[in-house]
Amino acid sequence: MDLFKEKNIKPMLISEMTEPFNDPDWIYELKFDGIRCIAYLDKDTELRNKRNLRLLPKFPELTDIYKNVKERCILDGELVILKDGTPDFFEIQKRALTSNNFKIRLSSDKYPASFVAFDILYLVDKELTNLPLIERKSILSETVTESPKLAISRYIPEKGIELFEIAKAQNLEGVVAKKKDSRYYFDKRTKEWIKFKFLKDMDFVVCGYIIKEKGITSIILGQYRGNELIYKGHVTLGVRYKDLMQLETMDHSPFATTPPGNENAVWLKPKLVCTVKFMPNEKGMLRQPVFKGFRDDKEPMDCQEISI
């Protein structure tokens, strides 16, 4: 199987959050708040998200990034949109969910996206996933000529705690720690890639909503426990609820038992996923939840319940 011809890569996953640490056998890089993306670059550009959906129609400003690589290659990285110098998750998710070509063109002019590469999986006609990470990083640097639209993720050795403190001070999402000799495993989560984040974020199924005073919208959240949808609380959306109104409604709760306090809910078929950031809580509840954005690169059934 040729990875480039197949164009069906499911990227390696990052393990859940842990406390920051320093270790000479690890490298550390900033975690960008965007859309995970695989870039297939040769005589043209192809961008695919984790569900293998094509992203270039939503981000046409990246059409020419293939010109910034020296050979045919496959890169793993993050699509980001910067506002005031920092990645803006809401802006990039809004673009990903837009289907109006005119609005896409306006947005791409006002808030152009960039692809930040942090790994290289394939070069010319050879798969590189069995090479140690530090070798892949070197090949990546030799292959890519950086530009405002295609950048390489920087990393530092050993000093994970210090980088985490810098990220926290700059209000960035966090840090990813990776073992120097780690291989790349498609669609697998290992203890060799780990997140440090001062705010945790998690994906939830949108199960309904309640319109409150002054047009404030409260989204009803759920996650799956196997095949059973479990109630996980609410997050305030504010007044941006047009996406919800377009979804298919239900005349009953999608949960096995309707959770109390939701008598005035508009119930929705569980087809949409959103991301919420919050402070971890030992009781398993969402503490100070903040809505980040809707996403179409994840299936509702992928929102499986885990300990928080």
Secondary structure: elements and pairs:
Blueprint: H1 3-6, E1 13-15, E2 23-31, E3 35-41, E4 45-48, E5 73-83, E6 86-87, H2 89-96, H3 101-110, E7 113-123, E8 126-127, H4 133-143, E9 150-152, E10 156-158, H5 160-169, E11 174-179, E12 189-196, E13 200-211, E14 217-225, E15 228-238, H6 242-245, E16 249-250, E17 266-279, E18 287-295
Parallel strand pairs: 1-12, 7-9
Antiparallel strand pairs: 2-10, 2-11, 3-4, 3-5, 5-6, 5-7, 7-8, 11-12, 13-14, 13-17, 14-15, 16-17, 17-18
Explained architecture:
The strands form three sheets. Strands 3, 4, 5, 6, 7, 8 and 9 form a seven-stranded mixed beta sheet that branches. This protein folds into three domains: about 15-30 and about 155-200, Dna Ligase, domain 1 (2-Layer Sandwich); about 35-150, DNA ligase/mRNA capping enzyme (D-amino Acid Aminotransferase, Chain A, domain 1); about 200-300, Beta Barrel (OB fold (Dihydrolipoamide Acetyltransferase, E2P)), CATH 2.40.50. The chain has helices at about 5, 90-95, 100-110, 135-145, 160-170, 240-245, and strands spanning about 15, 25-30, 35-40, 45-50, 75-85, 85, 115-125, 125, 150, 155-160, 175-180, 190-195, 200-210, 215-225, 230-240, 250, 265-280, 285-295. The mean pLDDT is about 90. It has about 300 residues and is an alpha+beta fold.
Any key phrases for this structure?
single chain, 308 residues, alpha+beta, Dna Ligase, domain 1, D-amino Acid Aminotransferase, Chain A, domain 1, OB fold (Dihydrolipoamide Acetyltransferase, E2P), 3 domains, 7-stranded mixed sheet, 6-stranded antiparallel sheet, 6 helices, 18 strands, 41% strand, globular
